[in-house]
Amino acid sequence: MASIVLNNVDKIYAGGVKAVNGLNLEIKDGEFMVLVGPSGCGKSTALRMIAGLEDISGGEIVIGDRVVNHLPPKDRDIAMVFQNYALYPHMTVEENLAFGLKLRKMSKPEIAKRVNEAAKMLGLEQYLKRKPAALSGGQRQRVAMGRAIVREPQAFLMDEPLSNLDAKLRVSMRASLNQLHERLGVTTVYVTHDQVEAMTLGDRVCVLRDGILQQVDTPQNLFDKPVNLFVAGFMGSPSMNFTYAELVRDGAGAAVAFAGYKLPVPDTAFAEKAGLERYIGKRIILGIRPSDFEDAVAANGASAGWARVPVKANVTEELGSEINVLFTIDAPPVEHKDTVAAANDGDEEEAAALPLTGDKSLWTARVNARSHVRPGQNIELVVDTHNLHFFDVESGLSIGHPANVGR
Amino acid sequence: MKTDTAPAVTPVRREVRPKAGKQSAGLLGGVSHVMLVLWTILTVTPIVYTFLNSFKTNTEIFGDSPLALPQQWGWGAWGRAWETSRIGEYLVNTVIVVAFSTFFTMLLGSMAAYVLSRYEFRGNRLIYTLFVAGLSIPPFLALSALYKVVDNVGLLGTHTGVVLVYVAYSMPFTVFFLTAFFKTLPTTVAEAAMMDGCGHARTFFQIMLPMAKPGLISITIFNVIGQWNQYLLPIALLPGDKQDKWLITQGIANISTSAGYEADWAGLFAALSMAIIPILIVYVIFQRQIQTGLTAGVGK
């Protein structure tokens, strides 16, 4: 096992396209690091550079205590799981698993021991004599995992290994991946475009966009304290609601005003977010997570720091445990390059399903299933004002985020 | 999901009409079977005719009923062809030459095609184009030059010379075909092999070649048949004074040309049959193995 460190890593393709731009990342020994971002953000390229399948245009990559820039993949002591599994079609499952070990001149009993252990761990024992063509998608996926496990490498690299599975299988494989990492404790770098996968699997998550690192943090911190509009919009499903708003302070205290609503901003927000004071009287971008809404009736009692927002529900999505309420507010949609980029590749919610006139934007609130709200109904929502997010209109950076102070 | 403007529900029911489908398939099947039978007659008749005639006498062959069975079944003509016309010897020569030339064609051709299809380097397209340009040069055009070259390097009248020329002539199509084939194979399998610890050569021989088996078999059959039936090149490269080096096509031609008016037609047909049989065997063995979908099981 080993740590993986990327120092100012660049990847420039022929034609001048910069796929990865000055990437600095330290993956600790035994850590599960997820690289996430929309397609074309350079996450797979970064992984392939660590693997040695792509040349490094600039910077250096260190695995353990070795600079591996010029080492071929076979000498880096890492194993990779590919999106399309890439099993050897002419070999049985057993031979597939043993192939890498045979190449390393391991003794036959040792190979047999490792193969059997991995097969047992992954429930592949009865398929050892089969060819990949005779396996189901999930079984092939496990063989691909097994091929990495038997090697007992310093690190696992996984390139969207679950994206070819159907939804149900993906959830169960996600759980077993988690278990596997718990048990083996091997440093893992995992690439995905699915933010749910990123949140559930990663010890830490690295959000990339256009080859540039946006934020590296624990999943919860990414969700609670996004560094900019892009991360805020990309992480979380349904994604964060945005609007242009004005930060004001009058006799009743500070408030944020938008689309005819006025939400009080608690003093703690100013204490937490350094520099927010300077935006008083100025335009900002306000962000509210759908999960920070609640139906006023259902949330009866929890009113401290909760502001009331009366809206008309256009669409409701009943998910069983909760309801997504989609409503419009009288404010033009935020058109910042970051929100556009995040919306393009996040979960395709039904954002485009309602015909919106230019000066309305569609918001989502996630309320308790007891709410019984129906489409077309007027409903009173409450907002947790402690969790409001404020962003700079120009830069899109989160105001008061530690990483942004001084930027 | 619910909306305040509920869309009208239009249930779609799949209508099942097996009868109509069956009828059209039956009609199509009938037509295709007629075509298949015609095609079979076209290809099988000459072969059967050749075999039958190898058992007849000259009088029978030129008699009133060319398709009748021979009056006496005997291997006399076969024996004459094998011994007197030395077809047996030429058959062995041809097997040796074709075996070597096909082996080297496939080895070099697949290696070249793999590199051209998978590796990016300066001049890749140029080399590929040069290979493919070879397709446009008919053997006739280069014949006299070829003769001179082979003569100069001292390989005229040797099997080595023939093998080399055969390989050169088979390369363009082999490379052209296999380059396209290798491009269809998933790149990640090769990458997985690299991660597992293969170098370039091992990746090629242990992973990519087995995956390319269907393509390799098709082009091998193509090359074997093409080189087996080659007549023009051996005529030029194995001259008359090296009769012991001749190939089977030269031997067969010799039967009909050397005898003048006393041609041994039954012997000629027997020799032809001997030339046909090995090719038939090769084809029967390999055609069972031409399976597409050998890459099934690589991925999802």
From TrEMBL, chain A:
Gene3D superfamilies reported in the protein's UniProt record: 2.40.50.100, Nucleic acid-binding proteins, P-loop containing nucleotide triphosphate hydrolases
InterPro entries noted in UniProt: AAA+_ATPase, ABC_transporter-like_ATP-bd, ABC_transporter-like_CS, ABC_transpr_MalK-like, ABC_transpr_MalK/UgpC-like, Mo/tungstate-bd_C_term_dom, NA-bd_OB-fold, OB_MalK-like
Start and end residues of each ABC transporter domain: 4-235
Any single GO CC term annotated in Swiss-Prot or TrEMBL for this entry: ATP-binding cassette (ABC) transporter complex, substrate-binding subunit-containing
Entry's Gene Ontology BP terms: carbohydrate transport
Keyword set, alphabetical order: ATP-binding, Nucleotide-binding, Transport
GO molecular function: ABC-type transporter activity; ATP binding; ATP hydrolysis activity
Keyword Signal: no
Keyword ATP-binding included in the entry's annotation: yes
SMART domains: AAA (SM00382)
Family matches, as PANTHER family: MALTODEXTRIN IMPORT ATP-BINDING PROTEIN MSMX, OSMOPROTECTIVE COMPOUNDS UPTAKE ATP-BINDING PROTEIN GGTA
Protein name, entry field: sn-glycerol-3-phosphate ABC transporter ATP-binding protein UgpC
Native source species: Herbidospora galbida
UniProtKB/TrEMBL annotation, chain B:
GO biological process: transmembrane transport
The entry's keywords: Cell membrane, Membrane, Transmembrane, Transmembrane helix, Transport
Keyword Transport: yes
UniProt KW Transmembrane keyword: yes
Domain of life assignment: Bacteria
Transmembrane parts of this sequence: 27-52, 90-114, 126-147, 159-182, 203-225, 265-286
Primary localization: membrane
Residue ranges annotated for the ABC transmembrane type-1 domain, each copy included: 91-286
Subcellular location: Cell membrane
Pfam families cross-referenced by the UniProt entry: BPD_transp_1 (PF00528)
Topology of this chain in the membrane: Multi-pass membrane protein
Gene Ontology CC annotations of this record: plasma membrane
PANTHER family reported in the protein's UniProt record: ABC TRANSPORTER PERMEASE PROTEIN MG189-RELATED, ABC TRANSPORTER PERMEASE PROTEIN MG189-RELATED-RELATED
Family: Belongs to the binding-protein-dependent transport system permease family.
Protein name per the record: Carbohydrate ABC transporter permease
Source organism (scientific name): Herbidospora galbida
